[in-house]
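[09:14] KT: can someone run the structure on this one? pasting the chain below
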Amino acid sequence: MAEASWPGHQLIVAAQGGDVDSIAALVSGSHPNIQRFARSLCATPEDAEDAAQEALIILYRKIGMLRASGALASWMFRIVRNECLRRARKGMRDHTPVSPEIAAVASAEDEVLQRLEAGRVAAAVAALPADQRQVLIMRDIQGYSGRMVADALGLSTAAMKSRLHRARATVRESLHTVTHPDPGGHDDRNET
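[09:31] RB: done, structure tokens below
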């Protein structure tokens, strides 16, 4: 499978400067990655397509607001995540069961739970420190090989694996904490 890469630094800088051709090339070159983000974060294919389109519009209109050209992937991830969360919340407000059948209610509940879970995962990833988030996104969301991630970030394979492990553990802990809060404020994981 050919990996889609983000547009280069020079193209991003030119787009930030307002060059119309560069902006068009940036939007076009970012599209596969943005779609991949949306498919991994949104609850439905329709929401993913809408979120990707919205993110591309924001990229087109607000590229000049991007502070560092190297932050394009994380900026777009946040935009897609926020759009998916917005759509999930809107879907929960707008959703009314069409049929009183139990199966329909169960599937609607499952859909809402899936949307909430995707939102929790996206929020946990967004809360990671930038170096961990970047490794996690490149490896687990974009699907780059460990070697490609390490090379792209100028890290040894061991350092990349260490950051990835810490990122995954932090996300897992964050999801566990939200799912099983401890009202007494103590850690009950080591108790038997």
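[09:33] KT: thanks! The first helix runs from residue 9 to 16.
[09:34] RB: yep, looked fine to me
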